[in-house]
Amino acid sequence: MLYEQRRRNLWFSRLVGVGFIAAVVFILFAVVTLVFGGDAFWFALSLGVLLAVIVIGYLKTDRWILRRFLRETVMPPRKVRDALEEMAIAAGIPTPIIYVIETRTLNAFALGREPAFGVVVVTKGLVDTLDQDELRAVLAHEIAHILNGDSMAGGLMAMMAYAANRIPAISIPFLRLAGVAAGAGQYTVLLPVLVIVAVCWMLPPLVRLSQILFGRSRELLADNTAVLLTRDPEALIRALDKVERYSSVVLKAGLSTSHLFITSPRPWWNSDLISTHPPMAKRIERIRHTTAVPIAADVI
Predict the structure, then answer these.
(1) I need a labelling partner for 159 at 20 to 30 A (CA). Which of 29, 57, 213, 289 fits?
(2) Are 147 and 237 spatial neighbours (Cβ–Cβ below 8 Å)?
């Protein structure tokens, strides 16, 4: 079942990536058609620049995301390094680089376009609050994201969301052009301009929807994989419960990276409709259901 879920997740990531690139290529083609009369040279040049940006983004996305969160870090304690190495050995991947962010909130995320470049980031609040078994379970959850390919897809999703949220700004000159074309009765120009504007404004909500679908499926899969790695579902249940109850400090994270974390970094994003994570109670209930773990008194 886990392998089938991994396969579906991989195809979903490919579908989202291809759809986003296709939308951007369409915008490029429409812009070149309007501005340069459909000149093949300018379209090929624009396409080449786009492909270069995609390749650079694929190689540099992790560094771009890490720069947003690693302004204040502390030395990872020995217990964190040992637990991470233990879980990496259990998963059969190289031990990722570990960073600890100086913040009291409880959260974590993983990056890496492949296991050899894996990075795990946890908060100091998480390290200080969880016991060793619970910390091992959270690190296993993040290792699972690297093992399942989520860290690579999640990084690319963050880059796409960041770009999509800025693409509507491109449509502002075209809105003015649409007004001029409408006033002059040039409806052959007006229609493609309106199509460009519509596509630009449709991209952000569509990418956000993709983030929601991506995050919810990947978190459940990572929970299941973490249980397989640790053989200790109770520890993961306790850890998730503490993350839910004690994460009162807001982590400075944007919408483009919200799906990367073990729990939504801002409390007001936890609405069932817009959250990139399934409700914590649902995640805990699913772990109990699949592993037959009884309800502990301290998790009620």
Answers:
(1) 29
(2) no
Highest mean pLDDT, choosing among 23-37, 64-78, 196-210 = 64-78
231/248 Cα distance (integer angstroms): 29
Give 208's contacts (C-beta < 8 A, 6+ positions apart).
161, 255, 274
Q: Per DSSP, which regions of 93-139 are E strands?
A: 97-101, 108-111, 119-123
Neighbour-count burial of 221, counting CB atoms closer than 10 A to its CB (0-12 exposed, 13-18 middle, 19+ buried): buried
Tokens of 202: 């449709």
Decide if 90 contacts 110 (C-beta within 8 A). Answer: no
To the question of pTM greater than 0.85 for the whole model, the response is no
Domain that holds residue 175: 2-299
Looking at the 3D structure of the chain, how many domains does it have?
1
Contact 93, 115 (CB under 8 A): yes
Strand positions, DSSP E, 63-177: 73-74, 97-101, 108-111, 119-123
Among 4, 86, 114, 142, the active-site one is 142
Residues 274-297 have pLDDT tens digits of: 778 888 888 999 898 877 555 554
Dihedral angle computed from the Cα positions of residues 235, 239, 245 and 247, in that order, rounded to the nearest 10 degrees: 170
Distance CA 20, CA 26 (A): 10
The closest of 68, 56, 62 to 96, measured between CA atoms, is: 62
Mean pLDDT of 193-208: 79
Res 196 pLDDT > 70: yes
Is residue 142 among the annotated active site residues? yes
